[in-house]
Design brief:
The complex is a heterotrimer.
Chain A lengths: L3 H27 L7 H19 L2 H25 L4 H19 L14 E2 L9 H5 L1 E2 L1 H19 L1 H11 L1 H6 L4 H27 L11 H11 L4 H23 L6 H5 L1 H17 L21
Helix pairs in contact in A: 1-6, 1-9, 1-10, 1-11, 2-3, 2-4, 2-9, 2-10, 3-4, 3-9, 6-7, 7-9, 10-11, 10-13, 11-13
Chain B lengths: L1 H9 E12 L2 E12 L3 E5 L6 H8 L7 E6 L2 E3 L4 H6 L2 E4 L11 H6 L11 H15 L14 H14 L4 E5 L7 H16 L3 E6 L2 H7 L2 E6 L2 E7 L5 H9 L17 E11 L5 E11 L2 E6 L6 H9 L6 E6 L2 E2 L5 H6 L2 E4 L3 H5 L6 H6 L9 E2 L3 E2 L1 H14 L16 H13 L5 E5 L7 H17 L2 E5 L3 H7 L2 E6 L2 E6 L7 H8 L15 H5 L7
Helix pairs in contact in B: 15-16
Chain C lengths: L2 E7 L5 H25 L4 H13 L2 H26 L7 H18 L5 H30 L3 H21 L33 H18 L1 H11 L1 H6 L4 H28 L10 H11 L4 H25 L4 H22 E7 L4
Helix pairs in contact in C: 1-2, 1-13, 2-12, 3-7, 3-10, 3-11, 3-12, 4-5, 4-6, 4-10, 4-11, 5-6, 5-10, 7-8, 7-12, 11-12, 11-13
The chains are: A mainly alpha, B alpha/beta, C mainly alpha.
């Protein structure tokens, strides 16, 4: 049991950046827009958060700037895909490429620098609980914020009237427009919000997980988040499960390497990606071919309100 | 003067001088229209006459180029549907504005902003139930819309408007998708709504219904208001004349043919639909040469799945599809094509044609693997295809800007002609046509019907699926009624059956005299015998 | 009377408009890049000039551009083949890697002394490996509708790690002092080079690929089927075109061509298998394919243009100390401009008079 707890705790930490990005993308896709550029958003978030913290000394300034940068970058995606009705797949790829390149380019002077970063904040009483205590309640504040976020989003999406609007605009934007709401405005809002959240996930990496900046430090987590959205069937609670699962694999692999495992490092490094494919396979095979059930019906399709 | 002003102030809606154009065509040319309290006012006209456009303007979906709208005597202009709804105007479109995946109550509540943050689910449901009860619009508020029948979905659409306290309701072709019984129930709802002081605009082109339900009728033709008459002074003939400007369309000249041998047969066919439901249930039917077999039924009762399995686009779960003596069930579309079976789908731009590709390529779509269209076995002979296309387009009178242009540029009627040309060109043995005249104007409709009859005369067997009972009755030699995937009735002599009988069968009541068990089977025919007592 | 802009869908664009728009995208992208340089404190016009003069100003430069054009054109064709069918092969990078891996395996385990059989074996091996890599994703998609964007992408990472395993481990060249690379390939396994440049046999393979792509798409039955599936899968089914089979086939071929590109890089250019031998060609190829409008000649042209940018970027790095990542940023900007211009390809903006009140 004692070996398990630290791994689980590490799983939560490792999975948190992915969770932020996944939650953001769930919002975006529920509104009907596919933003595959999460990797680029996360990297830019990691960089800007790191820079802000290094410059101002405030961690929250870092998180705030990361969010803002995420919003701005996803604004490009939103404009191209919503207003100019560009191909959402290719546009997402462009964002990822651009974000990766821009972060590498802008961050070259900061490679290897470190910050003190977020430290774990043990919650009184709760952190003493067996197993769950250290795993869930002895984490840093961004992890706690992610717990709150999951709960909030679940409530928001399924219980409030704005959540209803969100779900409707991804399924049938035509209907939403006919009811007098602006499908376009809603889509913009959730794309920007989702991008901001993804960037915060990136900031977690540079400010809490690794507490430093390195080129391409997210190592594909953004792409795993894209897969997780499908895995979680666009549901925040399931997304949490998936994020920690992947976090766990990542953490496990690190530990095995550190423990001097005989398995060569590159093969261990493959694990998260293999797992992603396996997970997607299981989900898709269960659903039966031909229908990606649970996906918002209007996902990926450009919407234009008919001429008035 | 005073009298008319007093009259006008009683009006719920007054629209004057409405002008609206699309792509250079005047959809509404200086149209005036008014609606009184407590009346059902029908907007009558052909496809493309401008009825939907006018009402879309009233409902806030379109902005008119000029003209005024007055509600209760006050001038209004609607910048959005929400605006119109706020003024009490609600529209039930032909294609319901519903979100299929969500529940009824969610659909009704969508977009209403007087709610608190958390949706008061229970209150919404109870409000829906009381409206439901009052107006005879029974529906389960917690059901998901895609699970409902079309008739029930329509009720949800109406409830949406009633929930928003609409005083002016616009119903756009509401009976197109209903059985005669459901239509009756709708009319009851309409009368209850008008009794409560509402004004209802009823858009339709079905003359019988129009005469039954309306107080007044306004006819639109080619974008202009041809006149408004009260229902008492109207007759079918007069309405038709005003609508078309000339005599009612002739029923096509149909010389009686003797049906030939069995061509295609469905035996105990069971087919599952996209959502896993069994859409075709132990269905057995024989298509014969030189015969048009019409399938009557409300949309969604399995016709689509039946036709797809007869064309090789869907594998039946059980049963057989016999073509010329061999079972083709489960084989792919190409096998059926090679066996002489042609399919004219309802979804033209979706299934029938590749919109982005040009006309030549679309014509090649159904034959490109044949020796005729190929060079050296794996290469396409575009020169030959071009020549073939040119001849086809000429023969069927398809108006095109050129063969190299994408098919998306063609008008609806020409698109259908193109599809027909492609499918009928090479003497098919069996033709399966689904909604072939949907959305077409009189000229194109006539053309399609005559083309099908011509094929029949030539010796082919035609299976015709249509929502339009008039069309089925006019064109078919035999009629089969489908309900929930079952063969409900088989009518050997269509001129004897009544609309009421058809309606009953379409809604699930089986009538002994049309029970397929007792129909004449091909083998019996040779013995010249019917069953009999 | 107010005037407002209204969108009208275009049915078709003339050749002139098409080319004009592609041109405009490039101009827009260059302008955005100039802005980028300006923000980085680098004189923009000098930077742009350096890119082009550095790349095309000398025969050596042109040769280098061609060297980069080869994998870009090959992968561009590979990716475009899949994209034509609306199958998103993001895995060209991984497919390049496994192709190179296969070529190295051939060198290590089946080396012969003569070039023609070596060429044959390496090409076959690379094609097969790349094809397998792509085809696996294709099978997952065809059979179980597993999203190919994610599977091909994940397989990129897996391929890179797989190669790392070999070159850090069993295949490492003992003489390389711990650097992750294999021993140099024997002469029989090297693709001959032309003139005095580093332009290798791969150019012929690339050329063949472009020609075959054009012929297949325009004139063969199968090419027609692919186009129809990409245009409208429902109509394809209606025409009896097998979709599942084609998904697997197309991803296999796509991977195979990318695999051959990998082989060309290691056997033609570098002469050994080493870590990070591909600077993201598989990803750049996506831009090449899209900017080239999925069209063989367009792809060839754009591949050359991209090669110019890459070589020019290296010049910038040397002369102006700009990081290589700035080329990636430029590529992103180009893709954005292309996407933005596509809008004008599909829609016309017309000014319409508003109704008076």
């Amino acid at each position: 049991m004692d070996i398990l707890t630290p791994i689980l705790a590490a799983a939560v930490r490792s999975g948190t950046p992915i969770l932020y990005a996944t939650l953001g993308e769930i919002l975006t896709e529920k509104a009907g827009i596919m933003n595959l550029g999460l990797e680029g958003l996360m990297l830019m978030g990691a960089l800007s958060g790191f820079w802000a913290t290094m410059t101002t000394g405030s961690l929250w300034a870092g998180v705030a700037l990361a969010f803002a940068v995420g919003v701005m970058l996803s604004a490009i995606h939103a404009f191209l895909c919503i207003t100019l009705k560009a191909n959402q797949v290719v546009c997402g790829l462009a964002i990822a490429m651009f974000g990766a390149g821009a972060s590498s380019m802008l961050g070259r002077s900061m490679v290897g620098e470190t910050v003190k970063g977020f430290s774990p904040l043990a919650l009184p009483f709760l952190s003493r609980l067996p197993v769950l205590g250290p795993v869930l309640f002895d984490q840093d504040i961004l992890v706690y914020a992610s717990f709150v976020l999951v709960g909030f989003l679940t409530w928001y999406i399924y219980r409030t009237r704005w959540g209803l609007n969100l779900r409707a605009v991804g399924e049938a934007p035509r209907v939403v427009d006919a009811m007098g709401l602006s499908a376009v405005k809603l889509r913009y809002f959730y794309t920007l919000l989702g991008g901001g959240l993804a960037a915060v996930g990136g900031a977690y990496m540079s400010l809490a997980y690794n507490k430093m900046w390195g080129e391409l430090m997210t190592a594909g987590r953004g792409w795993i988040a894209v897969a997780l959205v499908i895995f979680s069937i666009w549901n925040p609670l399931r997304a949490t499960l998936g994020a920690y699962l992947f976090g766990g694999v990542g953490a496990l692999q690190l530990r095995m390497q550190a423990a001097g495992s005989r398995i060569p490092a590159p093969l261990l490094l493959m694990l998260p990606y293999l797992l992603t494919i396996a997970v997607l396979f299981v989900i898709s095979a269960k659903k039966g071919k031909g229908m990606l059930q649970g996906a918002p019906a209007g996902l990926g399709q450009p919407y234009s309100r008919e001429e008035r | 003067m005073d009298h008319t002003r007093a009259q006008a102030s009683k009006d719920l809606v007054t629209m004057s001088g409405i002008v609206k154009s699309f792509v250079g065509v005047r959809a509404n040319d200086n149209v005036c229209f008014n609606l009184r309290r407590g009346e059902v006012h029908t907007l009558l006209g052909e496809n493309g006459a401008g009825k939907s456009t006018l009402m879309n303007i009233l409902a806030g979906l379109y902005l008119p180029e000029s003209g005024t709208i007055e509600i209760d005597g006050r001038k209004c202009s609607f910048s959005s549907p929400k605006d119109a709804i706020r003024h009490g105007v609600g529209m039930v479109h032909q294609h319901f504005m519903l979100v299929p995946v969500q529940t009824v109550w969610e659909n009704v509540a969508l977009g209403m902003d007087h709610f608190s943050v958390v949706l008061p689910k229970r209150k919404i449901i109870s409000d829906i139930m009381s409206l439901s009860l009052r107006y005879g619009l029974e529906v389960d508020p917690e059901a998901r819309v895609w699970q409902l029948s079309i008739g029930e979905q329509q009720r949800v659409a109406i409830l949406k408007m009633l929930y928003r306290e609409a005083r002016i309701l616009i119903l756009d072709e509401p009976t197109a998708v209903l059985t005669p019984q459901e239509t009756g129930s709708l009319f009851k709802t309409v009368r209850q709504m008008t009794d409560d002081g509402r004004g209802i605009v009823f858009i339709s082109h079905k003359l019988d219904e129009v005469l039954e339900i309306s107080s007044r009728i306004t006819i639109l033709r080619r974008g202009s208001n041809v006149g408004t008459i009260s229902a008492e002074n109207a007759s079918k003939e007069r309405l038709a004349e005003m609508m078309i400007g000339r005599q009612l369309m002739r029923t096509p000249d149909k010389t009686l043919q003797n049906p030939g041998d069995a061509l295609m047969e469905a035996r105990s066919l069971c087919v599952r639909g996209d959502r896993g439901r069994l859409m075709v249930n132990s269905f057995s039917l024989v298509m014969r040469e030189k015969e048009i077999l019409g399938i009557a039924g409300v949309s969604g009762n399995g016709q689509q799945e039946l036709c797809e399995s007869l064309a090789g686009l869907r594998t039946p779960e059980s049963g057989s599809v016999i073509v010329g003596g061999t079972d083709y069930a489960g084989r792919d579309a190409r096998a059926f094509l090679d066996a002489g079976v042609r399919y004219i789908p309802a979804d033209r731009k979706g299934v029938g044609l590749a919109s982005g590709m040009n006309i030549r390529e679309n014509i090649a779509l159904r034959k490109f693997w044949s020796r005729e269209f190929c060079k050296w076995r794996y290469f396409l002979n575009w020169e030959h295809i071009a020549g073939y296309s040119g001849r086809l387009v000429e023969r069927f009178n398809v108006v095109t800007p050129g063969l190299g242009y994408p098919v998306s540029m063609l008008s609806g009627g020409n698109l259908q002609k193109l599809m027909l040309a492609r499918e009928l060109a090479d003497h098919p043995r069996a033709i399966i046509a689904v909604q072939p005249t949907w959305g077409l104007d009189i000229g194109a409709t006539q053309f399609v019907r005559e083309a099908l009859i011509e094929q029949r005369d030539r010796g082919a067997g035609v299976l015709l699926v249509s929502d339009d009972l008039d069309e089925i009755l006019a064109v078919s030699d035999r009629i089969a009624v489908i309900y929930q995937g079952r063969l409900m009735g088989l009518i050997e002599k269509p001129d004897r059956v009544t609309g009421e009988q058809l309606g009953l069968m379409m809604a699930g009541t089986s009538l002994p005299e049309y029970d397929p068990e007792y129909s004449i089977k091909p083998e019996d025919e040779r013995h010249g015998g019917a069953t009999g007592s | 009377m107010a005037v407002r802009p209204v969108l009208r869908k275009r049915y078709q664009t003339g050749r002139l408009t098409d080319t004009g728009l592609s041109f405009a995208s490039i101009v827009l992208a260059l302008a955005a890049s100039a802005l980028l340089f300006f923000l980085l404190g680098v004189p923009p016009f000098r930077a742009l000039w350096l890119i082009f003069s550095g790349a095309l100003g000398s025969w050596y430069g042109v040769g280098e551009v061609v060297v980069k054009t080869i994998p870009l054109a090959l992968c561009g064709i590979a990716v475009a083949l899949a994209f034509r069918m609306q199958v998103w092969n993001i895995g060209a990078e991984g497919q390049i890697y496994v192709g190179a891996l296969a070529a190295a395996a051939v060198v290590r385990y089946c080396a012969v002394d003569s070039f023609p059989p070596m060429l044959l074996m390496m090409t076959a091996g690379a094609a097969f490996a790349g094809g397998l890599w792509g085809g696996a994703a294709g099978y997952l998609k065809a059979r179980w509708n597993v999203n190919e964007i994610i599977t091909t992408l994940m397989m990129n990472y897996i391929a890179i790690h797989l190669m790392d395993y070999f070159i850090y481990g069993p295949w490492r060249d003992p003489a390389s002092l711990g650097f992750p690379m294999t021993a140099p390939f024997p002469p029989a396994a090297r693709l001959p080079m032309f003139f005095d440049s580093r332009v290798h046999l791969g150019i012929i393979l690339a050329f063949i690929a472009v020609i075959i792509f054009r012929i297949v798409l325009r004139w063969t039955r199968w090419g027609f089927e692919i186009r129809v599936i990409g245009e409208n899968p429902k109509a394809a089914r209606y025409a009896g075109i097998p979709i599942m089979r084609n998904i697997i086939l197309v991803l296999f071929l796509s991977g195979a061509i990318a695999g051959i590109a990998g082989m060309c890089e290691v056997a033609g250019l570098q002469g050994r298998l080493q870590h990070g031998f591909s600077p993201g060609y598989g990803y750049t190829a996506i831009i090449v394919a899209w900017l080239g409008r999925l069209n063989p000649w367009g792809i060839a042209l754009v591949a050359f243009f991209m090669g110019t940018l890459l070589v020019g970027g290296e010049t910038l790095q040397v002369i102006m100390r700009l990081p290589l990542a700035s080329t990636q940023v430029m590529q992103g900007l180009i893709l954005f401009s292309v996407l933005a211009m596509e809008f004008f390809r599909n829609y016309k903006v017309i000014l319409v008079r508003d109704g008076g009140r």
